[in-house]
Amino acid sequence: MATWSNFNLQNSASPLMEQILMINLFFNKYINRFLLDGQMIELIWTIIPTITLIFIALPSLRLLYLLDELNNPLITLKSIGHQWYWSYEYSDFNDVSFDSYMINYNKSDINNFRLLDVDNRIILPMNNQIRIMVTATDVIHSWTIPSLGVKIDANPGRLNQTNLFINRPGIFFGQCSEICGANHSFMPIMIESISIKN
């Protein structure tokens, strides 16, 4: 039976286990008199992992800062989270802003996506760098589009940014992925990616 602080084998309950324990007692040395300290080995197994971690950390930090750098975006989209809808602003144009609410589901309309369709979609061009700036007005939200690999927190009083590159046309769905209140699951995000020639 196993007990607390038991570092050895458990008590035997069969003849085979009794024999294994007896062999272990007779032939096992509990103390190695030749290994009283191991300063050299302890030094080696401390230095080698440290050097390995440094070699992993340096390129990772460089990539981390390069990912956050966006030189020349074609469009900047500002997304503002509210309870329980999103507001969008295309800041590159003169006063283009709109609110995006979820559409009520109607069983007779088979073209709607239940709990995902919105009244005003975000229209973004494909094959171009896009800057997304996200904030909130009331509580913490999270602007998430899983198929584009984007998840950015929307905090009141803070402006977070990320960039994305959409490489194919289509409609992409997302939702607020931060529990922000009673209607948290009813604030979808819908992006329509189009060719810039259209």
Automatic annotation (TrEMBL):
Domain Cytochrome oxidase subunit II transmembrane region profile, chain residue ranges per copy: 1-71
Keywords annotated in UniProt: Copper, Electron transport, Magnesium, Membrane, Metal-binding, Mitochondrion, Mitochondrion inner membrane, Respiratory chain, Translocase, Transmembrane, Transmembrane helix, Transport
Co-factor binding comment: Binds a copper A center.
Biological processes, Gene Ontology terms: ATP synthesis coupled electron transport
Cytochrome oxidase subunit II copper A binding domain location: 72-198
Reactions it catalyzes: 4 Fe(II)-[cytochrome c] + O2 + 8 H(+)(in) = 4 Fe(III)-[cytochrome c] + 2 H2O + 4 H(+)(out)
UniProt xrefs under InterPro entries: CcO_II (IPR045187), CcO_II-like_C (IPR002429), CcO_II_C (IPR034210), Copper_CuA (IPR001505), Cupredoxin (IPR008972), Cyt_c_oxidase_su2_TM_dom (IPR011759), Cyt_c_oxidase_su2_TM_sf (IPR036257)
UniProt GO cellular component terms: mitochondrial inner membrane
PROSITE patterns named in the record: COX2, COX2_CUA, COX2_TM
Keyword Electron transport included in the entry's annotation: yes
Keyword Cell membrane set for record: no
Family: Belongs to the cytochrome c oxidase subunit 2 family.
Subunit composition and interactions: Component of the cytochrome c oxidase (complex IV, CIV), a multisubunit enzyme composed of a catalytic core of 3 subunits and several supernumerary subunits. The complex exists as a monomer or a dimer and forms supercomplexes (SCs) in the inner mitochondrial membrane with ubiquinol-cytochrome c oxidoreductase (cytochrome b-c1 complex, complex III, CIII).
Name of the protein described by the UniProt record: Cytochrome c oxidase subunit 2
Gene: COII
